[in-house]
Amino acid sequence: MPWVQLERSALAATFAATDPEQPTLCEGWTVRHLLAHLVQRERRPLARAIDQLSRNKPGQERRLGTLVDRARTAKGYDELLARFARGPSRWSPLAWADETVNFLEYVIHHEDVRRGGTPPLAPRQLAELELEAIWSRLGTVSRLSYRHAPVGVTFALPAGRGQVVHRGEHGVVVTGDPVELLLCASGRQRAAHVELAGSPESVRRFETWRNS
């Protein structure tokens, strides 16, 4: 089974077991908002684009809010969850590149739900093959995220393997499991379990840039 299907099933189970009003790592969004976002992203791309252009604060998007309001009852939430669990319709552009586009998206949003509550849940124990699949796809996301970093950045696994995600002098090394590094690359470093190494000045410059 493709990794994206396993992650979709796992995320659907987490959505079903979590309070829809619980906050997530996505500022302004509850679990209900995040579920609605995934459905909108896969089934209503035009509405999503309009919401993005409107530049409303997270949690105040007009068209996303319509989906959220329809899911405020238990029945409405279950129906929204069922739409997500079915995946993109076969006519959706996302369905043609499901593994490429959605796999890492689901991994990230799964942790948005799990680590957004109080207390945040511990990292999941994923199969080594899935961790390898995440690691192999990490470079593209990371290079885009760190392209403006003021110092060089290398991602490393605890076992020692590494990949350069931004070339530059006075580099830093960010060490963690693939999911934790993915959270860093997607701007969720405060929730990620990683270690940062480098000269004090390099670390200072990197953290200042990252937190700005």
Automatic annotation (TrEMBL):
This is TIGR03085 family protein. Coiled coil: none annotated. Residues 10-87 form the Mycothiol-dependent maleylpyruvate isomerase metal-binding domain. It comes from the Bacteria. GO terms for molecular function: metal ion binding. Pfam families: MDMPI_N.
